Amino acid sequence: MNGGGQGYHDNARGALWMLASGFAYSIAMALVKLLGDDYSSATQNFVRQGVGLIALAPFILRRPRSAFMLRRPMLMILRCAATSLSIILAFNSFHLLGLAEANALSFTRTLFLVPLAALLLGEKLDRQRLFATLAGFAGVLIIIAPGSAHSLIGWPAAQGLLAALLVSWSVISVKQMTRDHSDLSLLTWSTLLGLIFTAPLAWSSWRMPTAGDALLLAAMGVLGVVSQACYIRGMTLGEASLMGPLDYVRILFTTALGYMLFSEWPQPGTYVGSALIIGTAIYITLHGRRRA
């Protein structure tokens, strides 16, 4: 807790919460991959949003006016639609690619933020961030390895990159909406509209889960909520400049889970490309904070 003075941070405890967030996220994505043969990404996202709404219910009932406050409905609808689509695309990517590769591609959301912030928010794009962004996308090419025997060029990788792009736009829209919406309002509308948007796609591909699969689907939804809660807690306790880069530790978790559960072993290019993406993403984040 922040407990003491205004500038007090507990980086050690914050780091533990961030690691817990990454671990919960990695297990959730392993479940996405495990269940993907039998349940569509839309079905999995529908369950995820449903579990999230149940988890939010006590907070919504306690503060209904704050939860359902809505000042910019069109932007909220567009953001939630983009977020719902990004989750479905990301789930497809994790199901069809190796866990390590799909996870590495998801990190490009920080790279996409640079041009989007320049276009939509008018932020200055200096040479350092431009070169770092280009270097990060070079890491994507190394992972996809066009022309090689193990090339990942195709729809699965494209879905992962498109999901990251949509998440980046969602982050930009959140930055705009936090000026006149509470955190609870953003969470409530995101979950509720996500449930509504996903319902038709889930219905069209619905199959009744077995008891065991229902437990796994529910666990996936719970882990999604746990991951978000741990992330928020970690960022609250620790310094953002130190906590943010810890999110990238999940590349280690997904690599280990991929090997243990699916006998996946990433190609050497995945390590090189991931290091390049993560390194440039950290640089862009820290460079932006120094300029601020």
3D architecture notes:
Helices cover about 80% and strands about 0% of the residues. It is an all-alpha fold and about 290 residues long. The longest helix has 27 residues, at about 210-235. It is globular. Residues about 1-5 have low confidence and may be disordered.
Features:
13 helices; 292 residues; mainly alpha; disordered N terminus; 78% helix
Compute the gyration radius: what is it? Answer: 19 Å
The major beta sheet can be summarized as:
none
| Terminal CA distance | 25 Å
Q: State which percent range the strand residues make up.
A: under 5%
Shape: globular
Helix content: over 70%
DSSP summary, beta strand count: 0
* Helix/strand order: HHHHHHHHHHHHH
Average residue pLDDT: 87
Task: Describe, in short, the structure shown.
This protein has helices spanning 11-35, 41-62, 64-67, 73-96, 99-106, 109-120, 127-144, 155-177, 183-204, 211-237, 240-246, 250-262, 268-291.
Describe the protein's topology.
Elements: H1 11-35, H2 41-62, H3 64-67, H4 73-96, H5 99-106, H6 109-120, H7 127-144, H8 155-177, H9 183-204, H10 211-237, H11 240-246, H12 250-262, H13 268-291
